[in-house]
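To close the chapter, one final illustration. This time we ask the reader to focus less on the individual chains and more on the assembly as a whole: which components sit near each other, and how the overall shape emerges from the parts.
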Amino acid sequence: MTTHKIYIPRDSSALSLGAEEVFKAIKVEASNRKIEIEIIRNGSRGLFWLETMVEVETAKGRVAYGPVNPSDVPSMFDEEFFLGKDHSLSLGITSEIEWLKNQERLTYARVGITDPVSLVDYEAHDGFKGLRKALKLTNQEIVDEVTDSGLRGRGGAAFPTGIKWQTVLNAPSEKKYIVCNADEGDSGTFSDRMIMENDPFVLIEGMIIAGLAVGADQGYIYLRSEYPHAQAILNEAISIAEKNGFLGKNILDSEFSFKLEVTRAAGAYICGEETSLLESLEGKRGLVRYKPPLPAIEGLYGKPTVVNNVISLATIPIILDKGSKFYADFGMGRSKGTLPIQLAGNLKQTGLIEKAFGITLRELLYDFGGGSATGKNIKAVQVGGPLGAFLPEHQFDTPLDYEKFSEINAVVGHGGIVAFDDSIDMSKLARYSFEFCAIESCGKCTPCRIGSTRGMEVIDKIKDGIDQEKNVEVLKDLGETMVHGSLCAMGGMTPFPVISALNFFPKDFGLEKTET
Amino acid sequence: MLSEIKLQKIEEHLTVLKDKPGALLPLMHAIQDDLGYIPEESYEPISKALSLSVAEVHGFVTFYHHFRTKPSGKHILQICRAESCQSMGSENIEAYCKEKLGIDYHQTTEDKSITLEPVYCLGNCACSPAVMIDDDVIGRVNEDKIDDLIEKAKNNDNS
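The assembled structure is written out below.
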């Protein structure tokens, strides 16, 4: 009797739509019908409007069904889905689905395909090849590969990763650290979570290579407390890596040793700022530090520290494996490589798209996203999290590229795109930006701590029709003060969404004339 | 006054974690995971063990949204207030939960079953609006799903 291989995701977004119930229903139904199946809990492919997406291995490749609900399971068995046969929920061969076919998955090459905690699966799909190559190189050669790849920090600041590593490599110190910033707090982003839950070994491998490159023997993953699933999977993967000689002393029988642990954060958005994160990791309030000194020179416990985002680190293995040129050949201008783009909010088709830089917002929103979920017009999008500007429709042709976005006072950030339909009141969103800043400000600098609350009050006055002309001036002036006077991006960028909402949607603020 | 048992548990966590670099963060998680909150009475033994002032410990705990100094209900229901969820009508979900439970944010129902908290992103933005009950994230919530999960939580308490 043949055993049929069935894949059911364990990604937390899939679970949030009932993947666990689907898993149970398939198990029970198979057992009742005496059909031999093997269920693999893979990651999600990132097509969340189709979750729970169930796949079956066939001679032609994997065949997908979705969105599956537990009530669909009996009819799927009736139609013999386990043989890859047709059903009303059939999506055909998974890799042929348009959404997936039109991507360039490099960092996410394994996501949704493998069992996240299977080391065998990981190595069968090119896992640890980057590390094995890196072990044969000198520190400088590894750093050069990263520099030549053009990889820039995917957390949002887009600082060249290679230059950061070079600074840490050059800093003389017995002790150095690798810190992974996994405090993914921006609304509209979930790419870090998807790596950690769906391919944790790639992050581990990236961190080991980082340690090897700069001479650090200790790594920390600072993980947000809102991600308990990611925490469990990372800890499981770390322990598997330790048992198999990929972490700990003399990695793969080399001279190099590296320890890695997960530190759970405690729900402060500001701790996604690198110096605040380091304070928190040291067991203190997450107050932002003055820079300089840079963390690369004086970071964790005053020692040279690489602080990189999850995606930056998870992209290192493929760069080392396939070479810097392979990676740099993707993208446009100074934005090299690929970006995991996250489509979120009010869209028909939401999910993860890894794509070379250069695709336009319009292509993403309509070709991939299929327009708004509600069927209304898309009024605005926010790119790059709560500190990113709102973009109105006439800017939808902007290509995703760090410099092109910068030209229109917007940011690519962590690649999250949140769409809003025309029922949204932009003045409410602008007020929320200040409210969020007031809640999450670390309180160290005045423009952010006080400006955020004053900003809410000024917006209320404008909306109430009190001295509108004067108060619009005050709001813009406050924005300038925060941009130029804040210690970090929290206060320094909060005015971006506020002022863009005011400029592009003055009517929502009760203002007649169009401000520019 | 804090019970002897609780004080003893706090001491146990201190013994395990006090020498770890950056001890305060894992320590507070350990205490809250164990007791459900961080009693203010714990500040003094902690400050002594870690050579900190009571003010520093208090400052640390109150800085982080995750930590609480009062017991919560048996379940914690967190509603995402961030932009993506707003774009899919989370405001209505917030209002519905508050009305149904008869409480505002940071409050606990009279039967001590559910504490309501706001949260700023659960990383489930592709399935907005989202909520989290204890460690489970629920996507694309509507009033029916909220009814279900509250009922399930309460049944769970009674069983």
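The domain at 426-509 of chain A is CATH 1.20.1440.230 (de novo design (two linked rop proteins)). Chain A touches chain B through 61 residues (CB under 8 Å). With these observations in hand, you are ready for the problems at the end of the chapter.
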